[in-house]
Structures are given as C-alpha cells and as structure tokens.
Amino acid sequence: MKGQCVCGQTTFNVQLKNHDVHVCHCFICRRQTSGVIMTIDIKQGSLQFIKQDYLSIYESSEWGERGFCNQCATILFWRTKDQSYCNVNVFALDEQPKDLNFDMEIYIDNKPEFYSFKNETQKLTESDVVALFNGSNQESSHN
C-alpha cells in the first residue's frame, strides 16, 4: 500500500497488519493535530520510504519516535525505537481500505471532556499504553 505526505516530498510503501484504526488522545498528538491522530498498525519492518529527503524523526519519549515530512509537516508514523511496533497516519495512505474499523482509543485519561466519539471502542489509559510498550516499571508521560 502506498502513502505520502501532503506535499508529496515524502512517500512510502507499507503493509497493513489489519484494518483497525486507533485514536490517540495524548498531549503530543493533540498538540500536533489540534485534535487526535487516527492510525493503523503495520506489519513489522514493512515501512519502506521511496522519497525521504524531507523525512524527519522526532524522539518523543525514551521509547518512541515520530516521523514527519519537514517540508509540509505531515505526521506520518509513530513507532517504538526498536521498531518492533509501528503505526501510520491512516489518512497518509493514498487509499484507505473500505472496511476500516475504528476500534481503540489510547491515552483515554488524557482526553479533554469537550469531545467524544459515538463508536464503542476499547479504551486504554496512559499507564495501560506505557505497560504495553515499555514495561510497567518504567515511566513515560507521552508516546
């Protein structure tokens, strides 16, 4: 599956793990997007950049990093530093699968009260996410 940033200067190929869409309510995602980011999991190691002259990586925590185009600022992915897990901005894909399933909200305890989704989703707190990706004995305030 192909994807790209808004300006087309950063392009990639990727294989989706499934068609489940996740929303993140963490402070960084809300600040970057003025809302939430919607992502989809990819198969490990499948993110391959075709054009990457403007690709930048931001170290957002001790265990996570974000990729974006530094020409147009499109957020492209979030991954663990060891690259054992990666998700991509679902709207950076050139075409979204027809059967997308909005199934999970993470950092739900960081979500402001003034908005909500009507879909029934699995909801993970910040500590749930940290435990999943970093082990329960280490700390992080953002992914």
TrEMBL record:
GO molecular function, one term: carbon-sulfur lyase activity
Superkingdom of the organism of origin: Bacteria
Keyword line: Lyase, Metal-binding, Zinc
Boundaries of every CENP-V/GFA domain copy: 1-108
Entry annotated with the keyword Mitochondrion: no
Keyword match Transmembrane: no
Family: Belongs to the Gfa family.
Protein name (Swiss-Prot/TrEMBL): S-(Hydroxymethyl)glutathione synthase
